[in-house]
Amino acid sequence: MGIGNIFKMFQPKDKVFFVLFEKVAEELVAMSKEFHESLLDFDINDDTMLQHMSDYEHRMDDLTHEIFVQLGENFITPFDREDISHLASGLDDIADFMYASAKYIYLYKAPLDPAYTEFTLLIYKSCLEVQLALKNLNDFKDPKAVKESCIKINSFENIADDVLSQAIVKLFETNDALLIIKVKSVLEYLETVTDKAEDVANTIDSILIKYA
Questions:
Q1: Are 1 and 86 in contact, with CB atoms under 8 Å apart?
Q2: Can you give the CATH number for the domain in which 188 is found?
Q3: In this predicted structure, what is the pLDDT of residue 4?
Q4: What is the residue-wise DSSP string for the chain?
Q5: Domain count within the chain
Q6: Model confidence over 2-13: pLDDT tens digits?
Q7: CA–CA dist 122, 74 (Å, integer)
Q8: pTM for this structure?
Q9: Treating both helix axes as pointing N-terminal to C-terminal, what angle do 143-172 and 177-211 enclose, rounded to 10 degrees?
Q10: Boundaries of domain holding 16
Q11: 124 conformational bin, left if phi > 0, alpha if psi -120 to 50, beta if neither
Q12: What share of the chain in percent tops pLDDT 70?
């Protein structure tokens, strides 16, 4: 038996990691889309959106757990085990902070700041690019497209930084201490979601540099 055939024997036949990463990306896109659309027509007395965000977050936890299970069961992986671990954890962080943002919007019961939907749109766009980057990372079929998605995610994070600073300036002009505390907390959670997306983009970019 040739060395090529021996190598193939140890390869995951179903490319399980890319399958799982694509499922994670699908969940993130659906979660961020619902988050954004729900805030466009928000009702503090209807917690359907929060329940859905919790459901998404739990499914993400299950998928992340499965990725780590597969790391323990597969001898050959598509790239470094450490990179797979960082990527899985980073993707899960996006969902965790998205859910936290939604939770505190409901818990604080403060009026919605206009910046909330600016953030959720940036989050949704970031998740779309994460999905595209992971799709094109599969078998490293389109490194250029992966790089372009990572650049876009980084640009969305930069925009989010500006949205945060401008929103906080306007918030302090209200001179309402309790409102400032509540809304500033939510704004910072939302901005952190874009930070986590940027972390994922940086991890993907690092993988690309190593293997493409």
A1: no
A2: 1.20.58.220
A3: 39
A4: --HHHHHHHHS-TT-HHHHHHHHHHHHHHHHHHHHHHHHHT--TT--HHHHHHHHHHHHHHHHHHHHHHHHHH-S--SS-HHHHHHHHHHHHHHHHHHHHHHHHHHHH-PPPPTHHHHHHHHHHHHHHHHHHHHHHHGGG--HHHHHHHHHHHHHHHHHHHHHHHHHHHHHHTT--HHHHHHHHHHHHHHHHHHHHHHHHHHHHHHHHHHH-
A5: 1
A6: 433 433 444 444
A7: 36
A8: 0.92
A9: 170
A10: 3-211
A11: alpha
A12: 93
Residue 177 tokens, joined: 């201490």
Specify the pLDDT at position 140. Answer: 86
- For the record, the structure tokens of 56 come out as 């998404």
**Using CA atoms, how far apart are residues 178 and 128, in angstroms rounded to an integer?**
35
- Tokens standing for 68? 């780590």
The label of the residue with tokens 């890319």 reads 18
What single-letter amino acid sits at 47? Answer: D
Backbone Cα Rg of the chain: 19
- Residue 15 confidence (pLDDT): 82
148-163 pLDDT, tens digit each: 999 999 999 999 999 9
